[in-house]
């Protein structure tokens, strides 16, 4: 299973490396996800090759939100006057994300049939 973690983190690092070397505006983590998507969708790697490590990461995803949450609490004085705007932005972007995700999943389901 350590090999699976190394592979996942290696792909993420590759995305960071590409982003840095070519001074791209796309974050390296996003590039890493795109690389992983390409590798999985083309069958270069199989889901079974990374499944256990990916499931562990998904089960512990809440841990990854702790540092940003703590930083947010540290910045409460800056955010005091902007709560309504922040809530509006959060709701709007959540809805946009849900719609786009639904459309993409629908597209791939139709494409598979």
From TrEMBL:
InterPro entries: LrgA/CidA (IPR005538). It is a multi-pass membrane protein. The chain crosses the membrane at residues 20-41, 53-70, 82-105. It comes from the Bacteria. It is found in: Cell membrane. Keywords: Cell membrane, Membrane, Plasmid, Transmembrane, Transmembrane helix. GO terms for cellular component: plasma membrane. PANTHER family: HOLIN-LIKE PROTEIN CIDA-RELATED, UPF0299 MEMBRANE PROTEIN YOHJ. This is LrgA family protein. It comes from Ilyobacter polytropus (strain ATCC 51220 / DSM 2926 / LMG 16218 / CuHBu1).
């Amino acid at each position: 299973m350590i090999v699976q973690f190394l592979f996942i983190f290696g792909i993420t690092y590759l995305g960071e490396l590409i982003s840095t070397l070519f001074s791209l505006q796309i974050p390296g983590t996003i590039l890493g996800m795109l690389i992983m998507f390409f590798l999985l969708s083309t069958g270069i790697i199989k889901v079974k090759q990374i499944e256990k490590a990916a499931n562990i990461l998904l089960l512990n995803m809440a841990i990854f939100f702790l540092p940003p949450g703590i930083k947010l609490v540290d910045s409460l004085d800056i955010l005091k006057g902007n709560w309504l705007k922040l809530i509006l932005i959060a709701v709007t972007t959540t809805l946009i994300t849900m719609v786009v995700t639904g459309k993409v999943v629908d597209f791939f389901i139709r494409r598979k049939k």
